[in-house]
Amino acid sequence: MDRSTPTTTPPLVCWNCHERTLGTHFCSSCGKVLQVPEHSDYFAMFGLSRRLSIDATALEQRFLQLSWKLHPDNFVNTSPEERQVSLKRSSELNDAYRTLRDPVARVEYLLAIEGARKEGQTKQQAPPELLEEVFELNESLDELREAKASGGDTASLKQRLETAEKNFRGKLTALDAELQNVARAWDQSLASDGGAERDAVKSRLNDLLNRRSYLRNLLLNVQKELL
Prior knowledge:
Blueprint lengths: L11 E2 L6 E2 L20 H4 L10 H15 L9 H21 L2 H11 L17 H20 L4 H35 L5 H32 L1
């Protein structure tokens, strides 16, 4: 697992012995499980820098190690406060693992903690290059709904929608590949001092996430009508 440039965080103060500690999960002085620090993030929890390329196997191994150490069953004979801390720690660890193991969720989370995640408008707009295809798809959806309501023949309409669904799934796959390419560009930008470069990459990632959300919602609407 990459630990070359971990997120820098200030030393913690242990809730039990009140000593400053360099430990991430356990106090280096008294050994008690530490509270989740306010400045922590999911990457830091696994000793990672804010990179989007993560070794999935190493992440899983680290998660299993920490999950065993932080499991509430290990703290049944401790004080109520320490049991509560362990419960919170274990829950946070599970959330962190679920997020970081998923490439798309990982991008969304990174943008969120970087203050760069901006959702699309309340009524999402179709990507400009897809306007014509989206218009035709929505027409087909309306026709199918009308046929269902009137008891008309839906077979040919469903076949047309299935073809359109396959087409848009291909676009979603291509978009996911582009998202991962830009994610690699983010990792490369960390090696430079170019804040403007990183901002441009974050903007592009945000745009791709919004497009992906639009396509997924579109496909969900198609699937709903094809049932």
